[in-house]
């Protein structure tokens, strides 16, 4: 489905990356943007807007936010990564552009 046809402010949960790829956006020319994230990043927030400022007017935009916990996790406690004093956490996610 085309991004311009979607109205999303949606959290996707329980993701299991295929390799490391969680989501792929494909442009009309065949180029692709892949979102990759480590296994412990099992959530993805996707937001679309048709009123993103562009040169000379408005256009459609999509925002993708990899997450380790679901929305409202600070209240629910679901899937929070708890750290004791002196502990640390490192996680990785990123974007990969593939030209057509």
From TrEMBL:
InterPro entries: Gal_mutarotase_sf_dom (IPR011013), GH-type_carb-bd (IPR014718). This is Aldose 1-epimerase. It comes from the Bacteria.
């Amino acid at each position: 489905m085309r991004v311009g046809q979607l109205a999303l402010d949606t959290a996707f949960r329980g993701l299991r990356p295929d390799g490391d790829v969680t989501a792929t956006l494909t442009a009309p020319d065949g180029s692709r943007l892949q979102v990759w994230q480590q296994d412990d990043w099992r959530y993805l927030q996707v937001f679309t807007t048709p009123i993103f400022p562009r040169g000379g007017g408005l256009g459609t935009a999509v925002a993708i936010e990899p997450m380790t916990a679901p929305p409202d996790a600070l209240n629910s406690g679901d899937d929070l990564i708890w750290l004791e004093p002196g502990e640390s956490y490192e996680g990785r996610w990123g974007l990969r552009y593939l030209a057509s």
